[in-house]
């Protein structure tokens, strides 16, 4: 079972990481889906996206849950029936989920140099501290942090450049602060990240690490 990593953030928050090594057939035959999820999976044309979707359901099983414990609201945000918070992401070879008693957002991205070409679409004040060395990794952390914050507060009016500033960070310290600043909201969250196998995992929470 390719459970790659479990991050026990504290007593109420856990992150699960799955490295997708199975074939699509193996995933399809070992995962049980509710009717909504089955219809969604049937409509996916990308094999990579479908495998990521199914691997998320494998992670639910690791967490003692199933797809039948998961539902989505109209804004596309996932929820658990037991009222705990859940956040989901997948990218190519990895799927991740985080489960918590408090608000949490997660993102995983493959580190690709092309992020430098689109940096102007999401980099605001962060330009003041970014440096040329390891720029792709820095940009991916910023993007993942902003995605994580967006998932915590999925307001369609949020602008990544303006409303989701990320404080200066050191790649080796693996944590920083992020903010949601859009009236009437003024909230700050702890940002944690890890870089492995050419991917960057980022999650945002208002809980402190154990």
Can you describe this structure?
The chain is built from 5 helices and 10 strands. By secondary structure, the protein is of the alpha+beta class. The protein has 2 domains: 3-101, 4'-phosphopantetheinyl transferase domain (Ribosomal Protein L22, Chain A), CATH 3.90.470.20; 107-205, Ribosomal Protein L22, Chain A (Alpha-Beta Complex). The strands form 3 sheets. Strands 1-2-6-5 form a 4-stranded antiparallel beta sheet, covered by helices on one side. A hairpin with a 2-residue loop joins strand 9 (185-196) and strand 10. The radius of gyration is 17 Å and the shape is globular.
Summarize this entry quickly.
The chain is an alpha+beta fold and 210 residues long. The chain has five helices and ten strands, in the order ββαααβββββααβββ.
Radius of gyration: 17 Å
What does the overall shape look like?
Answer: globular
In sequence order, what are the helices and strands, one letter per element? EEHHHEEEEEHHEEE
CATH class of the largest domain: Alpha Beta
CATH architecture call of the largest domain: Alpha-Beta Complex
And the CATH topology of the largest domain?
A: Ribosomal Protein L22, Chain A
The main pleated sheet reads as: 4 strands, antiparallel
Low-confidence segments: none
What's the helical proportion of residues? 25-40%
* Structure class: alpha+beta
Bin the strand percentage: 25-35%
SS summary, helix count: 5
Provide the CATH superfamily of the largest domain. 4'-phosphopantetheinyl transferase domain
- Total domain modules: 2
Number of strands: 10
Mean pLDDT level:
95
* Measured distance between first and last alpha carbons: 27 Å
Taking strands numbered 1, 2, ... along the chain, how are they ordered across the largest sheet?
1-2-6-5
């Amino acid at each position: 079972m390719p459970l790659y990593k479990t991050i026990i953030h504290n007593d109420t928050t856990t992150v699960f990481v799955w490295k997708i090594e199975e074939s699509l057939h193996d995933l399809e035959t070992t995962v049980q889906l509710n009717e909504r999820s089955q219809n969604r999976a049937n409509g996916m044309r990308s094999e990579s996206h479908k495998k990521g979707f199914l691997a998320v359901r494998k992670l639910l099983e690791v967490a003692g849950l199933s797809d039948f414990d998961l539902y989505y609201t109209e804004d596309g945000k996932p929820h658990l029936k037991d009222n705990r918070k859940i956040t989901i992401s997948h990218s190519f070879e990895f799927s991740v989920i985080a489960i918590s008693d408090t608000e949490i957002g997660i993102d995983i991205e493959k580190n690709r140099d092309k992020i430098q070409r689109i940096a102007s679409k999401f980099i605001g004040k962060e330009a003041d501290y970014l440096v040329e060395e390891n720029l792709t990794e820095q940009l991916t952390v910023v993007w993942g942090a902003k995605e994580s914050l967006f998932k915590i507060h999925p307001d369609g009016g949020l602008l990544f450049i303006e409303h989701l500033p990320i404080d200066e960070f050191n790649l080796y310290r693996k944590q920083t602060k992020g903010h949601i600043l859009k009236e009437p909201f003024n909230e700050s969250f702890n940002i944690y990240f890890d870089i492995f196998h050419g991917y960057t995992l980022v999650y945002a929470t208002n809980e402190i690490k154990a």
